[in-house]
Amino acid sequence: MSSHIPSVAIGRRTVGADHPAFIIAEIGINHNGDLAIARSLIEAAASAGCDAVKFQKRTVDVVYSAEELARPRESPFGTTNGDLKRGLEFDREAYAVIDGFCRETGILWFASCWDEASVDFIEQFNPPCYKIASASLTDTELLKHHRSTGKAILLSTGMSTLEEIDRAVETLGRDNLVIMHATSTYPSKNDELNLRVIPKMIERYGIVVGFSGHEVGLATTVATVPLGAKVIERHITLDRAMWGSDQAASVEPSGFTRMVKDIRSVETALGDGVKVVYDSEVPIRAKLRRK
């Protein structure tokens, strides 16, 4: 279905029609500001067979208004929303540790950057790509800043109209761009996943399309593979009952391992679409066919 689609380079990995799906475990903010938890999540993702892990990076005072930061909100970090947002941000020293550990583990890492300064911050670690969050799809200047890095870009399309996606694609250009189908609810309802959008996006844009899932369960994510998704992203957590806003819509390590295994099994089972009689079928045919 998508053999004519140009491939995308993410680090040393090639993502496209003739290659296995590129699987991302989004750590996001599920580390709860704790480097030890982040390390455990990286280990779990690598053990499950993921290709990469993803974090989120924000310059808190740029992304949020003073009023929003002052809003009362109880958390382990304090009593305001600002206390929470600042508590979830890793500094340069922490990301240096993350960078080193990912290199040792052999897994790629990158981030969703919500503002230009965050792009510049992450760029010092030379990530293989960037993810643009659905919330940032209409931020033209941020899109241009991402594109100026020359890195591959994954564009998430939750809560966006086709017209908004068209404008974002026009801004970014189609080279080294992956469009990620998504529904921006946590967790997403199955009847709002609308997975049939994936092949329509492939046809509309002529580039690699992926899926960023926030649903409960694994079957719906695995189902995106025969629809043409070549990049798969799900949130990872150590325990869905942990404190944190994204934990309930995340997948635990055992689930991630099963999901990766199922994706690889489906990829193998899809075959090449050419009907043949396999050598293993010949003796069965000779035994069972009367005429």
Can you characterise this structure?
The protein is of the alpha/beta class and 291 residues long. The protein has a single domain (8-288), classed as Aldolase class I (TIM Barrel), CATH 3.20.20.70. It is built from 12 helices and 12 strands. It has helices at 35-48, 60-63, 66-70, 81-87, 92-105, 116-123, 140-147, 162-172, 197-205, 219-222, 253-270, 282-288; strands at residues 8-10, 13-15, 22-28, 52-57, 72-75, 78-80, 108-113, 129-132, 152-156, 177-182, 209-213, 231-235. The strands form 3 sheets. It has an 8-stranded parallel beta sheet. The protein has a two-stranded antiparallel sheet with strand order 1-2. Strand 8 (129-132), helix 7 and strand 9 form a beta-alpha-beta unit. Helix 1 packs parallel to helix 11 (253-270).
